[in-house]
Sequence to fold (238 residues):
Amino acid sequence: MVSERHQDTEMLGTGAMDSFWKYVVRTTGERSLGKFFWRGFILTLFSNFPTVAGSYLRGSVYRSLFKKIGSNCFIEKDVHIRIPQKISLGNGVCVGEGCYLNPQAGRIEIGDNVNIGRGCILRGDIHIGEWVEISENVYLHGDGGLEIGKHAHITQGTQIITGNHIFKDPTRPIMTQGAVLGKVEIGEDVFLGANSILLMGVKVGKGSVVGAGAVVTKNIPEYTISVGVPAKVIGKRE
Fold:
């Protein structure tokens, strides 16, 4: 399903207080100074505790901020978190150092035993099944909705994009024209090779393999192997 989202930045306030409240809402999801300072205090105080002890401690302390955190979760240092009350972690989740989690208008829901490598960005409405492996420096853009099935493996540098800017009107700045959004669905047991790119609205079928550097612009059938730019099916898993 493809939808449009429009924004006119000229209508937004530009004063100091407007900018401050805009930042408060972006980081907490609410226009509340109390929650802004409380959440900021907790995240700042505990975000850089070193070693495995700090990772385990954050998995416990952040339960007061997140919608849900299961047992035995590890959150490494310097993980940047916005609107934590819209983030859920299952049991045994590991979030690597330097990651950025921001559900924005959606939710981030991560199933049991998911590993998220260092330097990953998760932004928007993202739902990840159990036993998913996400390698380093993966970018998950979920503004249009993103679902990842269990046992999927998303390798380093992969980008999944669920939207695109509207640029039809040459008389207006592109940033004021909004975006087109389309949900991306990744099936169970899918393997996405390093630096692959998936564009909005595509479905990658169960058990399929996408080669390194491929650009997926159309649906990928189940249990197939696809490579190239744009990605094309070259065989089946047998």
User: Anything to note?
Assistant: Helices lie at 16-28, 33-46, 51-61.
